[in-house]
Amino acid sequence: MPTDFPLPYLLMLMVIAVLVLYLLRTAQKTAMAELNRVLVQQNDPVRYLEMLGSPRLKLVLRPGTLALLRLDGVLAAGDEAAARQLFEQLGTLRLKPAERLNGLQKALDFYVKRNDAAGAEQALAGLERLLKNEKNPKLQAVLSDAQLLVGVYIRKDAACIAPLKELCEAQNGTQRGITLYRLAKLYHAGGQGAAAAQALAAARPLVQG
Prior knowledge:
11 helices; mainly alpha; 0% strand
């Protein structure tokens, strides 16, 4: 009995595999476009979340991808309890590095806005583990900004004033305005009212304009 797999059958299996992969990717792109239309264009998080529960999407999208998409929906709907549950769930799922980064950034933003120190510190620790050896300058900048975000709004660490001033010198427009707002926050926390007012006044036209 021959042990070699017949070449025609092997070629047929390869064609079938390529076809299945093509159909899967097409279905994924179609699903993502439909979801984006409902959530972003129609601003309908309720309908969006209903769509994510469909068996069809569970077949074509990975559990990690579905969880991240569901997170977008509950955040848009303002469901904080569901968002917290999803942040915990994402920590247990197998995610691609870009997906992990996406989830941690959203967690950090969520917890910082709510002045939740424990949640913010946990999200930052996750980002530091993920990006500590990253050589890409853009990803290094992501980590640096996350560290400043926690330093300013959670720890209120005066040590962040110097790097924020350095950033100000290299920035313009809205970015500079955001950095000035952060400086104002730290000055205020440190009891430097005049410096806080000056930074705030400089920031307003940059952010509003």
